[in-house]
Amino acid sequence: MSKAIKKSNLKPWQEKIHEVIFEADTFAGKTFDIGLLIAIIVSIIIVMLESVPSLNEKYHDSFYLTEWIFTIIFTLEYVARIISIGKPNKYILSFYGIIDLLSILPTYLGLFIIGSQSLMVIRAVRLLRIFRILKLARFVKESKTLGDSIKASRHRILVFLLAVLTLSTILGTIMYLVESSEAGFTSIPRSIYWAIITLTTVGYGDIAPITPMGQFIASIVMIMGYAILAVPTGIITSEFIKTNNQPQKISTKSCNECSSEGHDEDAIHCKYCGAEL
Amino acid sequence: MSKAIKKSNLKPWQEKIHEVIFEADTFAGKTFDIGLLIAIIVSIIIVMLESVPSLNEKYHDSFYLTEWIFTIIFTLEYVARIISIGKPNKYILSFYGIIDLLSILPTYLGLFIIGSQSLMVIRAVRLLRIFRILKLARFVKESKTLGDSIKASRHRILVFLLAVLTLSTILGTIMYLVESSEAGFTSIPRSIYWAIITLTTVGYGDIAPITPMGQFIASIVMIMGYAILAVPTGIITSEFIKTNNQPQKISTKSCNECSSEGHDEDAIHCKYCGAEL
Amino acid sequence: MSKAIKKSNLKPWQEKIHEVIFEADTFAGKTFDIGLLIAIIVSIIIVMLESVPSLNEKYHDSFYLTEWIFTIIFTLEYVARIISIGKPNKYILSFYGIIDLLSILPTYLGLFIIGSQSLMVIRAVRLLRIFRILKLARFVKESKTLGDSIKASRHRILVFLLAVLTLSTILGTIMYLVESSEAGFTSIPRSIYWAIITLTTVGYGDIAPITPMGQFIASIVMIMGYAILAVPTGIITSEFIKTNNQPQKISTKSCNECSSEGHDEDAIHCKYCGAEL
Amino acid sequence: MSKAIKKSNLKPWQEKIHEVIFEADTFAGKTFDIGLLIAIIVSIIIVMLESVPSLNEKYHDSFYLTEWIFTIIFTLEYVARIISIGKPNKYILSFYGIIDLLSILPTYLGLFIIGSQSLMVIRAVRLLRIFRILKLARFVKESKTLGDSIKASRHRILVFLLAVLTLSTILGTIMYLVESSEAGFTSIPRSIYWAIITLTTVGYGDIAPITPMGQFIASIVMIMGYAILAVPTGIITSEFIKTNNQPQKISTKSCNECSSEGHDEDAIHCKYCGAEL
């Protein structure tokens, strides 16, 4: 009802297109979403394969043709979105509106400027739209829980990251002073790069200490990385547990008799006074 | 009782074989399981050693002989399973039925086609049967708890993996644009491969950025990998805690009135019927 | 009030400077803190860039000039801190007092001794002052929670680190005996260095086993590293959960009789005096 | 009392030595423990430095002398332990008794056989004795909690390790079939070694896929390693939380009036009926 009232400024054919493109509850909307998803994935794969020199030499013409087909499809989608919405400006200036435009622009620009095709990979961001289909199922709740937990711990993660960056700067500088430049510690920024590689336990090995003193300090850095790695895990896990354990066990119902709270979801009687909930 | 009724279409000798092969509670069944387990492990070790060029040259004949001995043992086991079961089709088409067939087929095929022997490693999957022995002990509960926790968090892990893949695609493409091909970033798929190596903190170092800009972005990717690594740990840990802690929060008392269970430790009244506990 | 009484031995102009430099609640104090923060970060970036040989050749004179400008700024700040505080000795001998001195000394010493400029990186430690600004917002609580959790688990982490070091020594020595020196295991300290690299899952690859026996032992070490890595995470996470969950288990109600706090959510009577809540 | 009765078969001078060597509560015992600890650490450092070729050439004689001094000290300690204990056999055959013997034997054997000196590193195990000093403080409780948690989750960790080994075998074999031997996948055992390196996120890079197909599979393995790494962390963390949260919050006291349990450690009155505890 309120939905129909809100959309009253749309003509019936616009409303139909709107329903197919923006909604995901009807069969047509679901089909459209899945089709679009496949088109996005395939177009991204094409962009990827195009970047492989040996494949590009062989199938250059096929890639060029497919690219244009997808660009036309996405252009039609973009136009359909604009004409079927009440306030086109709001869509055009939204995150997805800009992404949608950026995903078709590079091909057109490629007619005039050579080299801009690599921008087409912005389409990768369109993959985020995949979550719209996931909305159909119970995924919404899950991804919301994930997002909420990370959001709730963002302050602590920020404090943690600042501490890690300060630590990396100090450790990198110490290694720059201690290690020879032959081992790869040619400047402080490069040494900080090494410190981050080591603290995060990535460990490429492109820069590695070769002097005994450097290796001794590196060992301490690695063992510190142990404890440090535990911190973000602890932050996010404790947040997850809070979100995960609460809503599923405890009901929000309060007893009518003794107004006690904290009853289980499946409780029929108050566990304190015995009255029916 | 119900068990005997179910198996009534089996002859006594079939029932005996069935008990030895399929059950693990009797002494004969346990012995058979352990014997089969050893045979599987030894045959897998033979397949492994056969793949080492220097060993294969030296002991080729011994390997060939042992391989045939195990193939005959596993063939007899396969036949015994088929003839001792009520509905052979159900076994033949089951996961383990197919694995059992695939683990003997390659040796026979090897008589006709050269090179198919490497398929014998499918026997590795047979190692999964090891869990059947573990069933005997209290391992069932443990592995079930493990499995349940992972199963319960599969939606969230899927959402997480999709996010990681999207992120890897975007980061890989950025690095492809920024880094020179000399450093190993020769195509977008290879750059995505690098992004996955870095985000998962594996860090082979076969592809590593060499320009300052590339190293700067790589540092950001590594620090992001920190926080990202914490997410699956958080998901699974919070699930484990739920499964692990629940029995301790829930009392073992059952209601005298309605004999329902699962009351809180501090409950005074039954939460289902209201009777005092 | 109590604040004014405490500072009564300061002259008005000293009090004003004190408020700007040491407090972060007023607009002037906030502006000063942000300005100082920017100066610290820029001066650290200059020190970093100076260490890059190609940049130092090009912009040596600019770096030298900027360095002197920042040194004069930090000298003025140091003098202002000393004259605006009641007990200058307490500041001079405090952690930040020493850091502040060390961050200006190297430039002056550089006039007499060549090579001491690398000490200027001590300024990195000054970055820790960033947390003073963060104090303004709600970050205090967050960083305090983080610190408390790590502090509370320091005994267990120490025990854990001692166990890891003992293990690394044993594993390193075994590998030194097993592996050839060609693979990089030239001495026991180097082998211990390898063991730490492997146990912490950093894995540079500069030292890696090449014999089958060495690779077999390395595999066991890696799988052990799995379980070991889980221990500090478990310690810190369980501590975080305790700190994070407590306020939710504890009611905010205070007893009407004895006004004590910290009662459980489901408590009916005060646990200290027995009065009904 | 019961202690004195137990030791009655020891002469006074034996009891005195026993107290110094085996107990850690008296001043003499504490001093002896710390002295022994320092001797162990220094002797281990000597063994380490002796293995560095350049140092051994220079200081060979000093190392040889120090080694003999420590061997005599540890021999005296070993003899003192035997003569001051009621049942010497029990000590000689215990874990530490064997370690103590093994830590002095290599030097004596070195007089007859050349090359046995490397066995001296068994002294590293003696470092475990460090925990005896830690016993003095509150570390006992901590290390016991750590040990209990790991012990309680040993079944689940075993199941997990078996699953990881099965998975590594399968993944290693697939990579052996897919990848060329040029990349280092020369045999199945080596490929399994690679799979373990990758799943544990160590990532040496000595063996790394070079074909697109191999890199694709490797990417999947790495992402699987993500989720797998979370399992042991989850197991141990959930165990820690159980041990960590329980004893410190909940007292074992039960109310005399209503015999309710689960009161806080600092509770004076029953939270359910208000009676004094």
Structural class of chain A: mainly alpha
Radius of gyration of chain A: 28 Å
CATH homology group of the largest domain in chain A: Voltage-gated potassium channels. Chain C
CATH class of the largest domain in chain A: Mainly Alpha
> Could you tell me the number of beta strands of chain A?
0
| Beta-strand percentage range of chain A | under 5%
| Largest beta-sheet characterization of chain A | none
Quick check: average pLDDT of chain A?
73
Q: Please name the CATH topology of the largest domain in chain A.
A: Four Helix Bundle (Hemerythrin (Met), subunit A)
Oligomer: homotetramer
Q: How would you describe the shape of chain A?
A: flat
Helix proportion of chain A: 55-70%
Describe the protein in words.
The structure is a homotetramer of 277-residue chains. By secondary structure, chain A is mostly helical. Chain A has helices spanning 2-6, 12-22, 27-50, 53-83, 88-92, 95-102, 105-109, 123-126, 130-134, 139-152, 154-178, 188-199, 212-249. The radius of gyration of chain A is 28 Å and the shape is flat. Chain A starts with a helix and ends in a 28-residue tail after the last helix. Mean pLDDT of chain A is 73; it is low at 1-7 and 123-140. Chains in contact: A-B, A-C, A-D, B-C, B-D, C-D. At the A-B interface, α3, α9, α10, α11 and α12 of A face α11, α12 and α13 of B.
What key attributes describe this structure?
2 domains; 277 residues; homotetramer
Short description, anyone?
4 copies of one chain form a homotetramer. In chain A, 68% of the residues lie in helices and 0% in strands.
